[in-house]
Amino acid sequence: MSFVMPRPSSLREVTTPIFFDHAAGSPLRSDVALAMAEGLRGLPPNPSGSHSLARATRGVLEDARERIAAVLGVEAREIVFTGGGTESCNLALLGVMGPSAICISTVEHTAVRQAALEAASLHGVPLVELPVDSNGVLLVEKALELIPDGALVSVMTANNETGVTQPIAQLRKALRHAPRNIIMHSDAIAAAPSSDVKEIVLACDLVSLAGHKLGGPPGTGVLVVKEGLRLKARNVGGGQELDRRAGTQDVAGALGMAVSLELAQRDRESGAVDALKQRRDQLEQSLAGAHPTLSVTAQRVPRLAGHLHLTVRDCRSEELLMLLDQEGICASAGAACASGAPQASHVLLAMGVDADVARGALRLTLSTSTTDEEVAVAERALTQVLSKLS
User: Fold this and answer.
1) pLDDT tens across 223-281, in order?
2) What is the pTM (predicted TM-score) of this model?
3) Contact at 8 Å (CB) between 86 and 111?
4) Which fold would CATH assign to domain 30-267?
5) What CATH topology corresponds to 18-28+270-388?
6) Kind of pairing between the strands at 79-82 and 221-225
7) Spatial separation of the C-alpha atoms in residues 335 and 306, rounded to whole Å
8) Which residue of 2, 104, 137, 237 lies most exposed, with the fewest beta carbons within 10 A?
9) What amino acid positions are annotated as catalytic residues?
10) What phi, psi does 139 have (nearest 5°)?
11) What are the residue boundaries of the structural domains of the chain, listed by start?
12) Measuring CA to CA, which residue among 285, 295, 279 is closest to residue 194?
């Protein structure tokens, strides 16, 4: 059966839908695709052999590792390649041995939440949830009261739904005032496309990243593991990745991830991320007054440059998304892993948002590839859709 695009309204004739769901994953960047296609040309895929061609493949893998380490400001041996962001978070939460407690913020991604639950059960230790304020920002002083000595702490760099950034460096500095033997992990997956995460890598013992958020290949990830921290592998076998992650490495994927991180760094240095924020702000301002109960989430606190999160009281996310899709605007209600679920977002509930309001959430996420024309089309489509719901 062939797929038929829904017929748009008279607002515009859609030939190619406009993508405003980059937080779920950005399309593969052309430079990344080219590097992956060319990087292993004529070489076997397995880097573990002893012959010359396998050594050449291993050279490609280690070059990718060194390039990622250079972007993040760490040593190459501190980079562990994984099969994606979820695996990176699982290895971080479940690989640390002997924590006294597992501490996570109340707004963590489901990958961290579920791994934390399993880790607490595995070690027979408490799971401690660290509260946030009404903007979704971690309450650092309260967190310090709740975190016991010897705990594994996981607080995301920025929220994947709202884009709100967390005071990771402040928390780490406070935890270092006393010899508390804290191990700290941060899920930097949502932040890496538009933020310099070197400060996060410096502050934490473990940091998770994923390729598909960066316009890199899906199914690729990295876990930064600081020197001296021993992890128990979650999958065992050939002892690859210094016994931290068994299995034949995806060399082309590793190369693609290296290029995507370098391109993200270039975007920050060239001013492309600043331009992205301006487009996001323009879109946000254009919606003022478009609906009487429209509210911009966490508007007054630092957010990722491409994130715009809204709630509309007395509306349902699925209705908003359907109407926008008919206008050729691809958006989401929140985390892609949970989109389509009828329940309210746990992130918004943790912020104290009323459940009925939370069910009218809309997440629009732009990237450095988003154009002024696309923003203008989205402005008109959103204004028209919201006016229908007034």
Assistant:
1) 999 999 999 999 889 899 998 999 999 999 999 999 999 999 999 999 999 999 999 99
2) 0.94
3) yes
4) Aspartate Aminotransferase; domain 2 (3.40.640)
5) Aspartate Aminotransferase, domain 1 (3.90.1150)
6) antiparallel
7) 15
8) 2
9) 337
10) -85, 95
11) 18-28+270-388, 30-267
12) 279
